Amino acid sequence: MSSKSKGTKAERELLHLFWAKEWATIRSAGSGSMKYPGPDLIASNKARVLAIECKSTKKNKQYLEEYDIKQLKDFCDIFGAEPWFAVRFSRKDWLFLSIEDIEKTETGYVIDSKVAERRGLLIDELIKT
């Protein structure tokens, strides 16, 4: 399975999780390949709108480029959504992190699995706040 199809599968899995919690959710196909900023998922329950970038990895760290962060921020500023990164490390639960909870490095950003476990929110925690 290609990394693109694995990413699509992860996004769809998360989409179904939000719908199961009664949050209307859409997936933006090709979100990273357009000239306009756009998240992988947009989820809402009338009171809140979440713009979510999804990452799934078998490794203990997920690296992000400055571009990933900027795209999400830019979209949320225009759309009026909350920016979130959803990350799943090797068969564990999805964790949701705000941009402020993601570590800046010299060349970009990194989400460490241990840090994500401390700072990240599970889906039920995210949608109740």
Name the descriptors:
29% strand; 129 residues; 4 helices; single chain; alpha+beta; three-stranded antiparallel sheet; 8 strands
What does this structure look like?
- The chain is of the alpha+beta class.
- It has a single domain (3-128), classed as Trna Endonuclease, Chain: A, domain 1, CATH 3.40.1350.
- It has helices at 3-20, 66-79, 113-119, 123-128, and strands spanning 24-27, 41-44, 49-57, 61-64, 82-89, 95-97, 103-104, 109-112.
- Strands 1-2-3-5-6 form a five-stranded mixed sheet, with helices on both faces. Strands 4-8-7 form a three-stranded antiparallel sheet.
- Strand 2 (41-44) and strand 3 form a beta hairpin.
- The longest helix is centred in the first third of the chain and has 18 residues, at 3-20.
- It is globular.
Short summary of the structure?
The chain is an alpha+beta fold. It contains four helices and eight strands.
List the helices and strands and how they pair.
Blueprint: H1 3-20, E1 24-27, E2 41-44, E3 49-57, E4 61-64, H2 66-79, E5 82-89, E6 95-97, E7 103-104, E8 109-112, H3 113-119, H4 123-128
Parallel strand pairs: 3-5
Antiparallel strand pairs: 1-2, 2-3, 4-8, 5-6, 7-8
- The residue ranges in which pLDDT falls below 50 over 5 or more consecutive positions are none
Structural class by SSE content: alpha+beta
Overall geometry: globular
Overall CATH architecture? 3-Layer(aba) Sandwich
**Into which percent range does the helicity of residues fall?**
25-40%
Number of strands: 8
**What is the distance, rounded to the nearest whole angstrom, between the alpha carbons of the first and last residues?**
36 Å
In quaternary terms, these chains amount to single chain
Strand order, biggest sheet? 1-2-3-5-6
